[in-house]
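For this section, I looked closely at the sequence of one protein beside the tokens encoding its backbone, which the following lines show:
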Amino acid sequence: MDTFFIFIFIILVASILQTSTGFGFSILATPFLLMIFGAKEAIQINLILSFVISSALIYKIRKDIDYGALKRFIIGSVAGLPIGMIIFLMFDMNKLKFSISIIVLMLTFLLIFKVRISQTEGRDMTTGSLAGLLTTSIGMPGPPLLLYFSGIDSNKEKLRATTLAFYLFIYFISLLIQVIFAGTNKTIWISSGYALPFVIIGMYVGQLLFVKINQRLFRIFTYSILIFTGFYLLVESLK
């Protein structure tokens, strides 16, 4: 019973975060879900619930989507998705997590010190490719998108809308790939079903918070999530 309440709390907080910022469900939920479930279960529950949130929000926020960047993210992700699945099935996860953690932390600190980049079509596609790779390998597409949007100094409306639209594609395809190549089980779908009411509550609260978060606070929050992600992956890789 204690585990159930911990699971529900994780889902509720992660849903609020995803809805209010456009990112964060996988970044926040996956580390804690891995404490309760196996890797396959944690990743697939994350994929299912993140897809539900993106599906529910996409119509309302469609006017803020950068459709050009979204198209290039999707094209780039097509290359990254199968590579990520190969990594998930064949490679040492600890080495992958260690490498990602170092890159995320280094780039985050560069962003904090005002290092900025310009947006290009090639960088859009590279970001999509990295997001696809991380989705099927560790269930976390968020870090490349967050780093990129922060680096080009994007506003919060564009970041949230474009990221959620991309998630709608990437999570659906990643879930199909996971189910086909890694299999699935009842625990994943039953747990996701139990979580749905709390996802809905989290979405409602997240929408209320979004209108209250200004650009400066949004940026601080983004950096905090990236730093948390980097240190979490670093600690996990050293176990």
User: Anything to note?
Assistant: The chain has one domain: 2-237.
